[in-house]
């Protein structure tokens, strides 16, 4: 790394016109939909061809708001030029050998989340669903084929954690970042395969491991754990834990999550706090899961509608 400030793409002149949102949604849907349909078909085929008795897989189409950042690296002792950054960004060229590294920054000002709750919820036609607090414990399997798992937990009165659900390492068949140059924020669209663990033996071992941990923000890694069962300790270890407070708003086709997250990594005395806004395109997710991706025109209309809603109400800081 060079220590240079990350760069963002910006318009040379402001955009205007009442049709901007509709045009943007149409273009994004036109470009993203073929890849989405293909990725969903491949993901379902993979699940059907090689069914696993120890897991249950579900497809979900998610959207996040944040900022696409471009980090320049030195080549022959000099920073890559801004023209090169622009050209690479437009071409989508990145990777380990690229002089420009792209990241998607999802930490947002807390005021923005307040604005989303006060103004955007009603305008997007969403209703309050729930407010919850969960602890997510990252567990590493040191022996099995599946190396990482995430346990969604609730904290009990005695400070111990009880597992609500265990998910295997998430697979992401498709991810697309969209720089929305006329807006304050950018958009990330991603198709996820969420795999829920249903292996009783592994579940019981992980429950034993997690239930022995006591939540303690002052402890290294965010929790304390006494010595436990040697066989379990030899197979599994806790890699990190984070606490998430979130509110859910939604309707039949779209769900919005406002998250305040504090992350702790095992072996580290420091943590990370972030505020995030994400959406689940629930109507499209259900059709993709059920195999309804043959209805391309219907999917396109649903995708355009969801993207336009997010474009209008979730990509600008000021809603009042």
From TrEMBL:
Record-linked InterPro entries: DUF7903 (IPR057225)
Origin species: Aegilops tauschii (Tausch's goatgrass)
Residue ranges of domain DUF7903 in the record: 2-312
Name this polypeptide is given: DUF7903 domain-containing protein
Pfam families: DUF7903 (PF25475)
Superkingdom, natural source: Eukaryota
The organism's taxonomic lineage, starting at the top: Eukaryota, Viridiplantae, Streptophyta, Embryophyta, Tracheophyta
């Amino acid at each position: 790394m060079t220590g240079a400030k990350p760069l963002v793409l910006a318009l040379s002149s402001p955009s205007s016109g009442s049709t901007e949102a509709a045009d943007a949604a149409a273009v994004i849907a036109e470009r993203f939909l073929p890849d989405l349909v293909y990725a969903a078909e491949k993901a379902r085929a993979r699940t059907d061809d090689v069914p696993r008795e120890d897991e249950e897989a579900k497809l979900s189409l998610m959207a996040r708001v944040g900022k696409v950042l471009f980090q320049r690296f030195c080549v022959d002792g000099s920073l890559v030029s801004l023209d090169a950054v622009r050209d690479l960004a437009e071409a989508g060229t990145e990777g380990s050998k690229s002089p420009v590294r792209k990241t998607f920054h999802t930490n947002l000002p807390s005021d923005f989340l307040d604005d989303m709750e006060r103004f955007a919820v009603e305008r997007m036609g969403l209703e309050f669903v729930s407010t919850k607090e969960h602890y997510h414990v990252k567990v590493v399997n040191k022996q099995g084929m599946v190396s990482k798992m995430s346990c969604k937990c609730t904290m009990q009165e005695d400070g111990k954690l009880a597992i609500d659900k265990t998910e295997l390492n998430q697979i992401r068949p498709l991810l697309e970042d969209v720089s929305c140059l006329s807006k304050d924020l950018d958009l990330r669209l991603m198709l996820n395969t969420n795999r829920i663990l249903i292996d009783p033996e592994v579940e019981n071992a992980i429950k034993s491991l997690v239930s022995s941990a006591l939540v303690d923000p002052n402890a290294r890694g965010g929790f304390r754990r006494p010595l436990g069962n040697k066989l379990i300790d030899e197979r599994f270890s806790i890699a990190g834990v984070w606490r998430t407070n979130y509110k859910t708003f939604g309707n039949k086709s779209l769900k919005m999550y406002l998250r305040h997250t504090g992350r702790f990594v095992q072996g580290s005395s420091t943590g990370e706090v972030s505020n995030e806004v994400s959406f689940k395109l629930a109507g499209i997710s259900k059709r993709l899961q059920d195999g309804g991706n043959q209805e391309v025109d219907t999917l396109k209309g649903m995708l355009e509608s969801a993207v336009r809603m997010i474009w209008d109400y979730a990509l600008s800081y000021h809603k009042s």
